[in-house]
Amino acid sequence: MILDKINAPNDIHQIPLKDFPKLAEEIREFLVEKVSRTGGHLASNLGAVELTLALHNVLNFPEDKLIWDVGHQAYTHKILTGRKEGFERLRQEGGLSGFPKRQESPCDSFDTGHSSNSISAGVGYVRARDLLGQKHTVVSVIGDGALTGGMAYEALNNAAELHTNFIIIINDNNMSISRNVGGMSTYLSALRTAEAYTGMKLNVTKTLGKVPGVGNKIVDTVRKTKSSIKQLIIPGMLFEDMGLTYLGPVDGHNMRQMMKLFNEAKRVEGPVVVHVLTQKGKGYVPACSHPDRFHGTGPFDPKTGKLLSRKSVPDYTDVFAEAVCGQGRENRKLVAITAAMPSGTGLKKFAKEFPERFFDVGIAEEHAVTFAAGLALGGMIPVVAVYSSFLQRAFDQILHDVCMQNLHVIFAVDRAGLVGADGETHQGCFDLSYLTMIPNMTVMAPKNGKELQEMLKFAVSLDGPCAIRYPRGKAASDFSDRQDPVAYGKSEILREGEKTAILAVGSMVSVCGQVTDMLVQQGKNPTLVNTRFVKPLDTELLDRLAENHRWIVTVEENVKNGGFGEHVTAYMEACHPEVRVLPIAIRDRFVEQGRVEDLQAKVGLSPSEILQAIENCED
Q1: Angle at the Cα of 359 from the Cα atoms of 353 and 365, rounded to 5 degrees
Q2: Which residue, 55, 347, 467, 546, is the most exposed by fewest CB within 10 angstroms?
C-alpha cells in the first residue's frame, strides 16, 4: 500500500504524482474503517482528502503553517504528518484528538474547534513572519459554512491590508453541518455555476503573452491593475473589490489543478483567495447521500453506513424538540432560531411544522442573539437553541442586547456540562458562570426530561431573559414521580433530612440521588435538593436549611469559578457563617476528550468521588 510509505511529515514528497489518486483512495478506506469503530467527523474529512494531499504536496511541515477552520476536516492532515497509528484511539481519553492540537504535533499550527477564526489566526501568523524576517508560507483553510460567521469578514477586511503573501482557501462544499443558508451561500453558488473561469483566465493570459514584443508587458500590466482579468470576466467580484486576489473556482478533487493553482497562489505578493469546490462525503456512498448524518457520527457498519447502536430512549434534544413544537402550537408568537444546527439542536421538527417561524442564521451566534432581541422587541417570543460551548461566542450580545434591555428571549442551552469525545473546545462547563453574572437573566437546569418540558413552558410565560441548560445524551427519568410545579426561583426538595444537605444542579440530580442512597445505607439522613433555579438563588431554602444542617454540599457540572457553589458559599458566609459549604464542581481547567462517565470520575463528579468528598468533609 502507498499509505504504508507515509509515516512522518513530508513523506508525501517521496510519492510520485501518478500515485496520488491511489493514495487518496487508500486514505478514504482508512478513514471509513477507523471512524466506523470510534465515531467521529467523517463526511467533512472524506471531502477534503485531495485538497489536503495537494496542500501537503506544495508545503513543507512544520515550517509552513496550515490553519484549519473548525478543524473537523483535518484527519487526512493528521495521517500525512505521522499520526496514522493514533486513529485506533481517535477521540478517546488520552488518544488522538478529533481536532488540530499543537500539543500533538508541531504540524498543527492552531488549536481549533469553533468556527470562523482561521483567517484571523493566519493574519497574525503572517504579520509575525514578516516582522521576524521569515519566509515560510501561511495558509488558512475555511469552509463556506464558516464564512457565515462575522469574524471571518473582520479578518478578510484586515487581510486586505497585507502587502505580502497569505493564502486563504475556501473549501466550498455547500454545507456546514446542514445545508448552508444566506447571502454568502448564494454568492458562492453563483461562482460555482459560472463558466470555468480560472481556465479562461489562464487561456487569456497565454494568448496575450504570445503578442510579439509587448505580450508579457500587457500581462504584467493587467495583473497589477485593479480591474484584473477576472473582473473583466465576472464583474464586481466580492473578494477582488475588498483587495484580495481571487483564484478559482477549482475542482477540489483534481489534485493536479489544485497544485498548479496553489503554486500560483504562493507567487502572489499579497492576500489571495483560492476557491476550491469539494463534495462532502466524497468516495463513501452513505456519507454522500447523508452528509449531515455523517458530519459527526458514532460507530457504524462500514458496509451499510447504519449506526451500530440505536437510541432506546429519547435524549434531552429529542425532549426539547417535542416541547418546543408543543409550545409553538399553543403560542403563535413563539419563534425558533438556530445557528446552522437545526438537527443538532432538535429544531428540525419545528422547522418542518412551522417553517415561517423558524430561522437558520448560519454559523453566526452573535447575530442569532441580537436577531432574537429584535424579534422580542417586535412582539415575538424567540427561542434560541444552541450548544453551550457555542453560546459563549455571543456573550456580549446576551449581556448588552438582551439582558440590558430585559427582553423576553429564551436560550435553550444544549450540550451543557461534559460532552465527551469532542474535547476541550466543546465541553459546556462554563455557562453557569457566564450566564449567572448577568443582571436580569434567569437560569434553570432540569433534573429530567419531564422537567425540561415544564421549564420551557414556564420560560414562555416568564417576562424576561431566561436560559434552560441541559446535558447531552439520554434524558433522565429519575424522580419522575416527584414533579412539583415549577415556581420562580424555588428549588424542589426530593428528600428531607438533616445535618448534610446536597444541592444538585440539573444532570447532577440523578448522580446525587445515588450518593444519597449510599449515605442512607451508612445510616445517615441527608437532604437532597433539586436546585432547579441557579439564578435567582433560593435564599429562602438556604435560610431554612441553616436551621438543622451543618453542611451544605453543592454539586454542578460546571467550573467552580463563578458557579452555583460559589454563589451559595457567598450567601452562607454572609448570612449563616456557622454552616459550612462544600462546593463540588470542575476545578480551574480545560477538560480533554473521553467518555462522559470517565470524565466525570476524573473531575470528581462520579457518585463515588462525590461520596468520598462528603465523607472527608464530615470527618
Answers
A1: 140
A2: 546
236 contacts: CB under 8 Å, gap ≥ 6: none
Q: What is the DSSP string of 158-194?
A: HHTT--S-EEEEEEE-SBSSSB--SHHHHHHHHHHHS
- Partners of 338 in the β-ladder: 360, 385
Residue of 34, 65, 84, 393 marked catalytic:
393
Q: Which of 280, 447, 469, 535 is catalytic?
A: 280
What is the helix (H) or strand (E) element at residue 381, kind and residue range? Answer: strand 381-387
Q: Which residue among the candidates 26, 240, 365, 366 is catalytic per the annotation? A: 365
Question: Would residue 365 show up in a list of annotated catalytic residues for this protein?
Answer: yes
Exposure class string for 481-516: b at 16+ Cβ within 10 A, else e: eeeeebeeeebbbbbebeebbbbbbbbbbbbbbebb
Catalytic, 280? Answer yes
Q: What one-character DSSP code corresponds to residue 252?
A: T
C-alpha dihedral, 398 to 400 to 406 to 411, nearest 10°: -10
Return the DSSP state at 3.
G
Residue 231 binned pLDDT confidence (cut-offs 50, 70, 90): very low
In 3D space, the residue among 120, 124, 117, 122 whose CA is nearest the CA of residue 70 turns out to be 117
pTM: 0.87
Angle at 556 between CA 554 and CA 557, to 5 degrees: 160
Decide if pLDDT at 202 tops 60: no
**pLDDT score recorded for residue 195:** 43
DSSP H or E segment with residue 153: helix 150-159
CA distances from residue 497 to 505, 551, 552 in whole angstroms, order as listed: 18, 12, 12
Whether a cis peptide bond, with omega within 30° of 0, leads into 471 is no
d(Cα 78, Cα 49) in Å, to the nearest integer? 11
Nearest to 331 by CA among 342, 339, 323: 323
Give me the phi and psi of 554, to 5 degrees please: -105, 140
> Which residue from 504, 455, 442, 444 is spatially nearest to 478, judged by alpha carbons?
504
As given in the structure block, the three cell numbers for residue 517 are: 442512597
Please name the amino acid found at residue 336.
Answer: A
What's the gap between Cα 112 and its chain centre? 9
CA distances (Å), origin 590, targets 421, 491, 559: 14, 30, 9
pLDDT in tens, 505-564: 999 999 999 999 999 999 999 999 999 999 999 999 999 999 999 999 999 999 999 999
141 strand-pairing partners? 68, 169
Query: pLDDT averaged over the chain?
Result: 91
Residue 211 banded pLDDT, cuts 50, 70, 90: low
Radius of gyration of the chain measured on its C-alpha atoms: 27
Q: How far apart are CA 549 and CA 497, in angstroms?
A: 9
The closest alpha carbon to 462, from 507, 516, 408, belongs to 408
CA triple 592-598-601, angle to 5 deg: 100
C-alpha to C-alpha distance for 165 and 338, rounded to whole angstroms: 36
Instruction: Say if strands 358-360 and 381-387 run parallel, antiparallel, or are unpaired.
Output: unpaired
Q: In the prediction, which pLDDT does 228 show? A: 46
* Rounded average pLDDT over 598-610: 95
For residue 38, pLDDT over 70 is answered with: yes
Do the bridges between strand 533-535 and strand 442-444 make them parallel or antiparallel, or are there none, so unpaired? antiparallel
